[in-house]
Amino acid sequence: MDLSYSEQYEAYRAEVASFLAANWPPQGAEQEVSQVEQASRFRAKAIEAGYLARAIPKRYGGSEQDADVLKAQIIREEFARAHAPGEVAGIGPGMLVPTLLERGEEWQKEKFVGPTIRGEIVWCQGYSEPGSGSDLASLQTKAELVGDEWVINGQKIWTSGAHRADYMFILCRTEPDQPKHAGISYLLLDMKRPGIEVRPLKQMNGAADFNEVFFDDVRTPADWIVGRRGEGWLVSRTTLKHERNMIGNASRTGMLLGGLVNLARRTTRNGKRGIEDADVRQRLVELEGYIRAHEYSSYRLLTKAAKQQDAGLIQMMNKLNGTNIGHRAAQIGIDLLGDQSLVAPNPQRTVGPIEGTAWVNQFMWSLGTSLAGGTSNIQRNVIGERGLGLPRDEAAQRSK
Amino acid sequence: MNFDTSEEQDLLQDTLRQFAAQECPPNRVRALFDGDEALDLDIWQKLIELGMGGIAVPDEYGGAGLELLDLALAAEVLGETAVPCPFLGHSLAGLAIQLCGSELQRKTWLPKLASGEVLGSVAFAESASEDGAGGWQPEDWTLAAGDRLTGTKAFVPVGTRSDLIVVGTAGAGLALVEVGAPGLELTDAGGIDRTRHLANLSLRNTPCEPLAKSGPPVGRLRDAALVLLAADAFGGASKCVSMSVEYAKTREQFGVTIGHFQALKHQLANMATEVEPSRALYWYAAHAYDHIQEESERAAALAKSHITSQYMQVARDSVEAHGGIGFTWECDVQIYFKRAMFDRAFFGAPAVHRERIAQMSGW
Predict the structure, then answer these.
(1) DSSP labels for A46-81?
(2) Which of A127, B135, B143, B231 could serve as a FRET partner for B166 with CA atoms 20 to 30 Å apart?
(3) Are A372 and A349 contacting, i.e. CB atoms less than 8 angstroms apart?
(4) pLDDT tens string for chain B (363 positions)?
(5) Domain B216-360 has what CATH class?
């Protein structure tokens, strides 16, 4: 066991740090342009230097570096320390790009990967339907090949960012005669096509991040399919794995504790500052136990990934563990707020530490985390069945 | 960056697991649990032969010269298999002499502890209190130090069969007393965990040998104790999960094994999710003790408070998962339940260490 990095990796860390010192934050004339442009210019240099888009071949706009989870970790740490822009966030770079690289046609990679990782085009995901949530493979949105185009009819729901997206990757039923998992195809779709209607869904916290999307004879070219007809379910599996990693991120849970300690210092409880209250102190440390266990488990995951070994059970529970921590933190936050929790918060999610009534927002947001990308109850099925070897759910087996 | 156990460490754990399966399987554990003997010499002797008497004792004193992490990995397996033995007290006695003893004291005692010639234990607690503090912490010890000791100590592991006891004294000091010394009396305390019998110690003008160092090195001893308790608790909690999972795979109702039912499946998934991440928490605490000393005190307290309370909860959940049989004396769950109660309370309840952490944080 050794938590330090070897000399070779420490040299790499120094390299990354000196790159950052020279390039972020922007200096001189570089500061004149918009923040978006600053970030975009910085990312181009970082790709050039081999620090971003590492898994992506150069011909698609990436930096094509050998896979090295320790270097990747060092880059994340150093970029975070310098508050420098990292990989473009979102479902496009996080989910679509890995899928295209693994399963896409050459022209698809050339057309979509570069602009997506540079943030020039934005994607949304057409998966869930009103009748198909946890049982996603029962989806009914239909695509029929008519001439050289797919014609799509049906409805998607919980589509995050559909109102801002340029494109959608969508699961459609194309082989209605096949068993449910074998009848699905993975299509790409331009959101400017006629026949698409996007209706925002207002969330319980007042924000509207996701939408219902209706399709009325929407056309997309026949070759805008990833993988073969009927392989869509398998193709989509590559991506969900990536999303789980994104949501279960351990460093995000660490920030929750700092935010709560600040809140406890500023609020009053039983006539004392919250942080002096015995019960609050106990609960904060109890939360810290969960946070550290999660954080150190991410070191285990990192080590296993570096050795190219399967981490097993701990990997499967990563998302549920992160979600549970979010719930615990939100509960402490709302208790510390006291009467301030009667005030409706600004529904926009803040970046960085959560402060003041943003905890009311977090109290609701943490529930969203437990639903998105596979609900906590589905996670429990996965842990129970694949992790602990308990029998598969019979209804789910029967419907295959 | 390598946050994983080594092949040698995996071998250590495998060896201990095999030993437990052959020499002390569950039926033997049950028999010892029901018996009145505080020590099964045969089992302990075989553990000594495997090197369990001196894993962390430096090699110049006859030990294996390994780290607290290795000791903790052994504690995990003993927690998982519930082998009745004096490992905890004996290991802590060795660490106490190593951390606080003079060169002469080390030379005198460590080889004897490593070889098992002398069975060691520790006497820290002074009295049971309602808030669980119980005078366990070095800063709370009041027994007057000196060449002779007079007073009482509580909850000495396997005390009635020990040869040498390290006693905590006022001013965060330690002193050695030999069993058989005048004025020394050990009586069974009727401990709830019958795999680790506890004794009460009474001293009346008993000659002792104070260890050379007090204060900070005694704090290190506490950190080590908390890590070993956390590791034991992790092993036990993991075993509670696996026993409950096995039961769900074999017990049938309504014509199917009960693991088919989602209500139970989710309870078991929750138990596993509660426990498994804590492996990294106790590893980290042990690693910090060995290599990141500035984080050691906090990491040890966090691991002990967190994992022992999880163990208690998961032991309760296991009783439920087993149904009626889980509530009986014959079911192994009750043994783990009581080991959980030991780990939780020994050297201070979770609340005590959480408050210590709050203070370390400057809150």
Answers:
(1) HHHHTSSSTTS-GGGTS--PPP-HHHHHHHHHHHHH
(2) B231
(3) no
(4) 899 999 999 999 999 999 999 999 999 999 999 999 999 999 999 999 999 999 999 999 999 999 999 999 999 999 999 999 999 999 999 999 999 999 999 999 999 999 999 999 999 999 765 555 579 999 999 999 999 999 999 999 999 999 999 999 999 999 999 999 999 999 999 999 999 999 999 999 999 999 999 999 999 999 999 999 999 999 999 999 999 999 999 999 999 999 999 999 999 999 999 999 999 999 999 999 999 999 999 999 999 999 999 999 999 999 999 999 999 999 999 999 999 999 999 999 999 999 999 999 999
(5) mainly alpha
Q: Which residues of A, range 41-80, sit inside 8 Å of B by Cβ? A: 70, 73
Residue A149: strand pairing partners: A146, A221
CB within 8 Å: B4 and A380: no
Instruction: Say whether A285 and B305 touch across the interface (CB within 8 A).
Output: yes
Token pair for A255: 């920030």
Strand, coil or helix: B205: strand
Domain edges within chain B: 7-115, 120-210, 216-360
Give dist(CA A173, CA A129) in Å, integer. 12
CA A165 from chain centre, in angstroms, equals 16
Distance between CA atoms of A142 and A109, rounded to whole angstroms? 25
What 3-state class would DSSP assign to B257?
A: strand
Q: Pairing relation of β-strands B120-123 and B164-169?
A: parallel
Q: Is A223 helix (H, G, I), strand (E, B) or coil?
A: coil
Any B CB within 8 A of A28 CB: no
With beta carbons under 8 A apart, name residues in chain B contacting A312: none
Query: In order of start, what are the domains of chain A with their CATH numbers?
Result: 7-81 (1.10.540.10), 123-230 (2.40.110.10), 248-398 (1.20.140.10)
**Alpha helix segments (H runs only) across A82-177:** 91, 97-103, 106-117
Contact residues on chain A for B302, CB-CB shorter than 8 A:
285, 288-289, 292
Q: Which residue type occupies A397?
A: Q
| CA–CA separation, B169 and A302 (whole Å) | 45
A91 to A241, B65, B175, B334: CA distances (angstroms): 12, 51, 63, 49
Q: Does B109 touch chain A (CB under 8 A)?
A: no
**Gap between the Cα atoms of A346 and A315, Å rounded:** 34
Could you identify the residue written with the tokens 């553990």? B47
Chain B: closest CA distance from residue A161 (Å):
32
User: Regarding beta strands B173-178 and B164-169, do their DSSP bridges make them parallel or antiparallel, or are they unpaired?
Assistant: antiparallel
Instruction: For domain B120-210, give the CATH number.
Output: 2.40.110.10
- Third-level CATH fold of B7-115: Butyryl-Coa Dehydrogenase, subunit A; domain 1 (1.10.540)
- Alpha-carbon distances, residue B293 vs A22, B137, B297, B322 (angstroms): 35, 19, 8, 42
List the beta bridge partners of residue B184.
B203
A286 in contact with B, Cβ within 8 Å: yes
List the one residue out of B99, B227, B89, B105 whose CA is nearest residue B173. B99
